[in-house]
Amino acid sequence: MPALAAVRAANAAFSPAYFPVAVFVGGTSGIGRATAEAFARYTKGNAHIVIVGRNKSAADEVIASFPKPTEPAAKHEFVHCDVFLMRNIQATTAALRERLPKINFLVLSPGLLKFRGRDETAEGIDKRLGLHYYARWKFVYDLLPLVRKAKDAGEDAKVMSVLAPGHGGPVNLDDLAMKKSYNFAKAGLASPTYTDLMFEHYAKENPDLAFIHIYPGLVATPLIFASHWAFRPLNYLLKAFATTPEDCAEYMLYGLFQTEKGFSRRNQTGDDIGDYRHYGSEEERERVWEHSKEEIERALAVKIDAA
User: Can you tell me the mean pLDDT for 6-30?
Assistant: First the structure.
């Protein structure tokens, strides 16, 4: 486990010879926001940074905190996208593919904490599973050509999902969409496993790219301490053990920068955990992949009343 000071020193050594393009999905709050801010700080603002989310005012605050760049090509922007719906993601990624020359770093951290039962979007996808898995699958699938362009130019080309490697569970091939037996615990175990299997599939097809699944641990974000009444009586206790978003962001960037290629599973201090508590066979991996593709195509085909 590297000390925080060592992690900061390693991150500070990041000085690419190329001009970096980074996309942060879920970068308006919590871990995503702190990671985007840290990335901007280490690049001294000299990067093209895209923050994708729903809250423009929050994004404006984040961007205002970035260092003022000295490179003419530097650009910091917000792209609005309600990532609950697959069709919104498809429209957003199509627009990004048209105007971005490449993506060096694609960081995915949208999250939702709820204890109620299955809560579907208008497209028929559970909101929690959607944010933690299907939305991320869709972003990676659609934007991978831009990540590939970065690698073909001899640059860093990395995708990172901030979720929970080592905290998943067995695959239920009879109910991959969790429409028959949904509950809070099962949904929480499914998304990390699906993410592992998704990134294994991508890494198998793109062995020269980097795919990182990283666990942030308990972090003092609004998602934990403001979003659910059940946590409020425990706030003081939780805060005593929780990492600040700023410190967490250092470890997230460390895991991102340290992974050169292939699939990497990392813990809250950026250490590679290998196959620790890994679930899913090769057959299950491909079944989950095909299910994901079919489920998203089904969601996109759903007709939604414009009203």
Answer: 95
Structure tokens at 221: 């974000």
Other C-beta atoms closer than 10 Å to the C-beta of 124 total 13
84-113, pLDDT tens digit by residue?
A: 999 999 999 999 999 999 999 999 998 776
Q: Would you say 64 and 145 are in contact if contact means Cβ atoms under 8 Å apart?
A: no
**SS3 category, 270:** coil
Q: Are 202 and 255 in contact (CB under 8 A)?
A: no
Name residue, tokens 């939702």. 112
Nearest one of 258, 132, 267, 287 to 200, comparing CA atoms = 287
Sign, Cα dihedral of 201, 203, 205, 209: positive
- Please give the Cα distance from 248 to 239 (Å, whole number): 14
Q: What angle do CA 252, 226, 253 make, to 5 degrees?
A: 5
Burial class (CB in 10 A: 0-12, 13-18, 19+), 246: middle
| Per-residue pLDDT tens digits for 158-207 | 999 999 999 999 999 999 998 888 777 888 899 999 999 999 999 999 99
Q: How far is it, in rounded angstroms, from Cα 126 to Cα 217?
A: 24
Domain 4-301, CATH among 3.40.50.720, 1.10.260.40, 3.30.70.360, 3.40.50.880: 3.40.50.720
Per domain, the residue ranges of the chain are: 4-301
**What stretches of the chain show up as alpha helix (H) in DSSP?**
4-12, 30-42, 56-65, 86-99, 127-129, 135-152, 184-205, 222-225, 235-241, 245-258, 282-301
pTM of the model: 0.92
Return the axis-axis angle of helices 245-258 and 30-42, rounded to nearest 10°.
60
Return phi, psi of residue 306, to 5°: -60, -25
Sheet of 210-214, strands arranged across: 75-80, 48-53, 21-25, 105-108, 158-162, 210-214, 262-266
